[in-house]
Amino acid sequence: MNKILITLYSFILLLLVPMTVKASDRPLQVGDVFESENLRYEVISTIPYDNVVGNVRVIGRSQEDNVYKYSDEFHIFSLAQHISMSNGSEYSSYYKVTAIAPGAFKGDKNIESLSIHAPIKTIPANMCKNCKKLNSVTIDNIELTKIEKNAFANCKSLSKISILSRNIKEIEKNAFKGTHLGFNVAPYKNTQNKIKKLVKKSGLPEKSFSIYSSYKKRWYKSWYYNYQHGTLA
What we know:
Distance between the termini: 57 Å
Helix content: 10-25%
Order of helices and strands: HEEEEEEEEEEEEEHEH
Strand content: 25-35%
Largest sheet: 6 strands, parallel
Radius of gyration: 20 Å
Number of domains: 2
Strand order of the largest sheet: 4-7-9-11-13-14
């Protein structure tokens, strides 16, 4: 009876745990996981469109024992490359990065820098919570609308975050708890005032953050990059 229960339990685990697919394996399906450079992705859609074969979300750093294992700098771009095998030949397919999983980098001991270039609309809850070495965050897409609770809580080294989006509508409570932040934002006064109000509403004391001078060159450069790479709506 015990053996039957153990076998049943193992089978259920196989169904629930995402499968990491190697280059020589079957085509990717929803729920499969693959790694590209220093990031780990989960497939959330396999419907082809606009020269991509589906959508993925970032679920954390690479877990393979390679040069990227202890990376301290991460760039989340709009496309993720997956390498497959067909008839003995290697070819690449691309997925659009549309989301980040809640807690993707939570408690990461090595991450120091994070740049998000993909068209992510929401920074999820607990994304970088307790990342003690994280000191720099740049969100270089103009589609961001929301930062969820505890996204950067207890990131004690985080002193500056750059946000290019003019569409921020909500920063949830404790999103920046335990940090002492300064903000670079899109070069518009109304955007700066909006960020101020949202940050104060989120629970971060006014004296613990400051708005740095606008940076038009950086904003326009990033806008042009996103336009050229098809990440603008």
